[in-house]
């Protein structure tokens, strides 16, 4: 429903003005929404892994082989069954059909968009990073809950560790499963990337902007976490995923040209090659360029139109490259060009 309504809003916007003059960010969002049903590779694999893990959990539980939610779910760090690997594996386990259907729907809806915006490498890093962050926040919340409400008598901070260690087997019941922390981080990323896009949220009869939807979700989760401490719903994990996602996005905004691969090294060798080829052309090429510059300076209109056309051709080429290979395939110069043109 959210996807469909967002698509309609963008189509109405396109009818009001020529597609050629749309802002770059609107062009990109329209492209992302219209290609949403072609699920990107990382989002598709995450959906498959989550569904397979859920089906395996049901089969193993029915056959009495093992409880995968107990093995892979995130236990309280003072519990007997806690393992560090659970900070990752808990994201792929779910408690029931309603839990996994809602999470996978949101993963498909927001994950497909954000993976096409960021590219597969940045997207999977964001997803795992925020999921781990959500787990850490849930562990902290569980500690304070056990310390303040778990025992019948007050105790000191250091003393509480000894008491919890004594009851480590009983603390195994504090287990967290689900991808909700990472999913809420994707919701935040969508709201920060496209804050003014309108969406329909059932049962609200009017469309609301994505930024207000994100702020409303934060308010609801914060109120729920304070009003129902110890609830089976990990409200603190949801907030934790959004918190880690916020700081990571802010870091990326301050370093918009950061790469995860070896693009920087390729750029160095590419620049060296270009300089070598220019040097081989010698004086003849330099003289020809000088004559062109003198002629262009006497024809300012021609020069302006030529620069404008060259810029538009470059933007079209970059957008086509994103469509084929994702955002991470861009060089630093291409990212800078796209960033500069998007702000005009």
Structural description of this entry:
- This protein is mainly alpha-helical.
- The protein folds into two domains: 40-254, Rhomboid-like (Rhomboid-like fold, Up-down Bundle); 267-342, no CATH class.
- It is 71% helix and 2% strand.
- The protein has 14 helices and four strands.
- It has helices at 2-16, 24-34, 41-63, 68-72, 86-89, 97-118, 120-149, 157-166, 180-193, 210-227, 235-254, 263-297, 300-325, 332-342; strands at 74-75, 175-176, 198-199, 208-209.
- The protein has a two-stranded antiparallel sheet with strand order 1-2. It has a two-stranded antiparallel ribbon with strand order 3-4.
- Strand 3 (198-199) and strand 4 form a beta hairpin.
- Helix 6 (97-118) runs parallel beside helix 9 (180-193).
- The radius of gyration is 26 Å and the shape is elongated.
- The protein starts with a helix and ends with a helix.
């Amino acid at each position: 429903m959210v996807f469909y309504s967002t698509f309609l809003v963008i189509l109405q916007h396109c009818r009001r003005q020529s597609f050629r003059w749309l802002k770059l960010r609107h062009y990109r969002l329209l492209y992302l929404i219209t290609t949403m049903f072609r699920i990107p590779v990382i989002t598709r694999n995450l959906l498959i892994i989550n569904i397979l893990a859920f089906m395996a959990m049901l089969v193993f539980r029915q056959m009495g082989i093992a409880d995968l939610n107990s093995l892979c779910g995130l236990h309280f760090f003072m519990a007997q069954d806690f393992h560090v690997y659970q900070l990752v594996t808990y994201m792929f386990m779910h408690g029931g059909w309603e839990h996994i259907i809602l999470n996978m729907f949101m993963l498909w809806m927001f994950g497909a968009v954000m993976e096409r915006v960021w590219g597969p490498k940045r997207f999977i890093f964001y997803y795992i990073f925020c999921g781990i962050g959500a787990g850490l926040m849930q562990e902290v919340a569980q500690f304070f809950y056990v310390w303040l409400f778990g025992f019948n008598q007050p105790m000191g901070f250091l003393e509480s560790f000894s008491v919890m260690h004594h009851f480590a087997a009983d603390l195994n019941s504090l287990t967290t499963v689900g991808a909700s922390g990472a999913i809420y981080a994707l919701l935040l990323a969508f709201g920060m990337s496209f804050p003014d896009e309108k969406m329909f949220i059932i049962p609200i009869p009017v469309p609301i902007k994505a930024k207000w939807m994100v702020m409303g979700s934060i308010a609801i989760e914060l109120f729920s976490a304070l009003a129902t401490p110890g609830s089976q719903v990990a409200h603190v994990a949801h907030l934790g995923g959004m918190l880690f996602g916020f700081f990571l996005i802010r870091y990326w905004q301050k370093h918009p040209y950061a790469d995860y691969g070896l693009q920087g090294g390729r750029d160095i060798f590419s620049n060296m090659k270009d300089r070598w080829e220019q040097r081989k052309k010698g004086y003849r090429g330099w003289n020809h360029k000088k004559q062109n510059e003198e002629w262009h300076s006497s024809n300012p209109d021609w020069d302006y139109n030529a620069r404008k056309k060259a810029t538009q051709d470059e933007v079209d080429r970059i957008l086509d490259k994103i469509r084929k290979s994702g955002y991470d395939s861009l060089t630093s110069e291409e990212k800078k060009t796209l960033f500069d043109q998007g702000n005009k």
